[in-house]
Every structure is written in C-alpha cells, then in structure tokens.
Design goal:
Elements (H helix, E strand, L loop, with lengths): L3 E6 L6 E5 L3 E8 L3 E8 L9 E8 L4 E6 L3 E3 L7 E9 L4 E5 L3 E3 L4 E10 L4 E10 L8 E10 L2 E11 L13 E8 L10 E2 L4 E8 L7 H31 L1
C-alpha cells in the first residue's frame, strides 16, 4: 500500500503541512505558524489479512504536531495472510509530537505485526498513546506482535516487544486482561505516580491492564502529559523571539 505521510514545517503566516493519503487519510483540522492539528481516518476497510499499512510522520524543528485517530482500528481474520502496521516518526530539534491513538483491536483469527519507531532530535519531545485490545467483546483475540523502539541523538531510549496470542496467553503478561493501555512520554520528565515507570533518560510510561477500555485511568494522564509537552514547545518557540527583542534594544 502507498504510505500515509504527515509532515509539518514552520511557515509564515501558517505552517507548511504536507499530507499524503495511503491506507489512512490525514485531514488538516487547524494550524498556525508552527503548530498543526491533523485527524487520521481509514481511507478504506482496514485491517484485512494481507494489508500492509505504513505511516510516516515528520515534525519539523520547533513545530508542534497533534495527531488524533478518528475511528480506531480493527484487525480482522487473517485467513492465513498476516497483516502489518508500521509507524515511522521523526521529531526534529525542539519539536513535539502528540499522537492520541484510539484502540487497536485484534479480533479472533487476526495475525498482525505492528512496529513503531520514533527518532527524537536534540530538545524534541513526544507523547504517544497506544491502546492494544485482544478481541472484541466475547472474543479471545488473535495474534499480535508489537514492537516500539525510540532513540535520540545519544542513542536508544526505549525498546519494547510484545508477542500476544489470545488462544495462548503468556503467564505474567496480560493475565486475564485483554486491554493494554499505555501513555508514553519521551524527551522530558512528566509528573508521575508510584504506578508509572520512570525511564533512565527523560521520559515515563503509564500503563493500565483491564478487561474493558473504559476502565482505564489514562485519559487524565494523557491530558496532563500532553499539556506539559505543549508548554515546553511554546517556550522553545517564544525564546528566540524574546532574545531577538532584547538584542534589538
């Protein structure tokens, strides 16, 4: 399939936003000179057996890109044909990516490989929400291999891999739960609780395991961490202007 592409660069008076439709159709919701809000919806019926979805995201230096899913994703029965979902993201100097994903549901008989890669430049930040669900209500769910890797200019920040199968649950992974909800913050230190995982480099992960998505506590976590990232980006954008004003005096 043709890759879905979202790229934003600073512009005057409005940011330059490049959108390319693939399996997903990005739609511009709002923008100013350095910020853009883009919604993602399926361009057709996905995720079927044999589908390969690729999403490329580039956030230019000093920009803020907010991505939101419109309808979530359901991976259907594979009938012997695995499907793939790949997300490649690059966040340049002083920029921020906020991606609030809706549930990714792996139905009975589905076979999905999901890969997320994130590259952060110096001073870049990201907050990403991933909600993985094994099966619709009453189902055990199919097979999901999910990998998330992130790095900055100095090296690796995060490397995780999950291999889940609703018909063969792994002890100590999901247990009796079918929902794995996570908010991942990288490039800064958000406010955390004792239940969150604080990373060695600036960043943290908040997780929720449950039987249903609506029982997750992470809506509040997302709101707080995303707002902190917005404020950091606003400071990066404002500081050069302030320095120029001081120099002019």
């Amino acid at each position: 399939m043709i890759p879905t592409r979202i790229a934003v660069r600073q512009g005057d008076p409005r940011a330059r936003v490049d959108l390319a439709v693939g399996a997903l159709a990005p739609r511009l919701v709002a923008r100013d000179d350095s910020r853009a809000h883009v919604a993602l919806a399926a361009a057709g019926m996905i995720l079927l057996g044999g589908d390969h979805v690729h999403v490329e995201v580039v956030v230019g230096a000093g920009c803020l890109l907010e991505l939101e899913d419109v309808g979530g994703t359901i991976a259907y029965r594979a009938d012997g044909r695995p499907s793939a979902w790949t997300m490649s993201m690059r966040v340049e100097e002083g920029a921020t990516l906020l991606w609030r994903g809706l549930p990714f549901v792996v139905t009975d008989g589905a076979d999905v490989e999901r890969r997320t890669t994130l590259d952060l430049a110096t001073g870049a930040t990201a907050v990403i929400r991933e909600t993985l669900v094994l099966g619709r209500h009453g189902e055990s769910g199919g097979r999901l291999r999910s990998a998330f890797t992130a790095r900055d200019a100095e090296g690796p920040l995060l490397a995780e891999q999950l291999d889940l199968d609703g018909l063969a649950p792994e002890p100590g992974v999901l247990g009796e739960h079918r929902v794995l909800d996570a908010v991942i913050a990288l490039g800064f230190r958000p406010s955390t609780t004792a239940d969150d995982l604080v990373l060695e480099h600036p960043g943290a992960i908040a997780r929720h395991l449950g039987a249903e998505t609506h029982t997750s506590r992470l809506d509040r976590v997302w709101d707080g961490w995303a707002e902190r990232a917005r404020q950091r980006t606003a400071r990066h954008v404002d500081e050069p202007a302030n320095e120029a004003a001081v120099g002019g005096n």
